[in-house]
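Why run this: before we spend reagent on co-expression, it is cheaper to look at a predicted model of the complex and decide which construct boundaries make sense. The entries below are exactly what would go into the expression plan.
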Amino acid sequence: MANKFLSIGELSRQSGLSAYTLRYYESAGILKPVGRTPSGHRRYHREDVIWLDFVLRLKRTGMPLAEIKRYARLRAQGEETTRERFALLELHRERLAAQIAELQESADALDEKLQTYRDMLAAATVPEDR
Amino acid sequence: MANKFLSIGELSRQSGLSAYTLRYYESAGILKPVGRTPSGHRRYHREDVIWLDFVLRLKRTGMPLAEIKRYARLRAQGEETTRERFALLELHRERLAAQIAELQESADALDEKLQTYRDMLAAATVPEDR
DNA sequence: TCTTGACCTTGAGCGCACTCTAACTTTTAG
DNA sequence: CTAAAAGTTAGAGTGCGCTCAAGGTCAAGA
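The model came back. Tokens follow.
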């Protein structure tokens, strides 16, 4: 138990991504070339899983794969890119704030519209008085 | 001034959508067949603009065109679909709330990560003590 | 040993939401 | 009157992010 490695099928189940997608991410440079068994089967290590979780977090916030890939490339280059990665994430954080604000505004507008629907329905379901 | 109609170019400028996209929305059933001049040029009326604004609001909140189209179809069918449209919007409102909550959670996680970057950079830029 | 299922690679295909091309007509400014 | 800008259509092309098909290899249980 608490296996050291995960096969692609296991990681697929754990992450919710298809095995296709995991291979695609690797080929796209988002996951670095992962360890292999002697026969060529992928073995994902704890660090790979942690990195994937972070990637999925960025994805959930709408960062395009191309930009995630850029971050991954910087990360692979090591410490001297720390400042650049920081700047990239900071920019994304700002976009995220803007996105949240816009969604909130739309949610408010939607609430108003829903209220007019409620009023309409209330009027329609009581066509006679009492 | 305060023209009664808009040409496709004018609406394009006003809405930020390309004329291509406006025609595409019409062909996709999102904008109902719009008025034409005798020679076939489109003329958008005030109601068309108002509806487009609402469509764009739904779009900004991540509603796929197929679902917007469903709403448009119901709307075209008239009053007896009011309840269904209301339900559709209410469901979307809930998804929107979930989306906002998830983004907020990711924003918080990102803030933590940014803080560790700040700590790292602070440590790295003062390698000697003073 | 056989079979079943998980895995491998390469490359094609797909769904969404546009975006553009080509060939043509209409409108507008000078 | 004419040139250029803006409009029309049908249909092809694009970019993103997967998703799958084909044709194999490998591992584990009956």
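The helical segments of chain B are 8-15, 19-27, 46-60, 65-77, 82-125. The mean pLDDT of chain B is 94. Bring this page to Monday's planning discussion.
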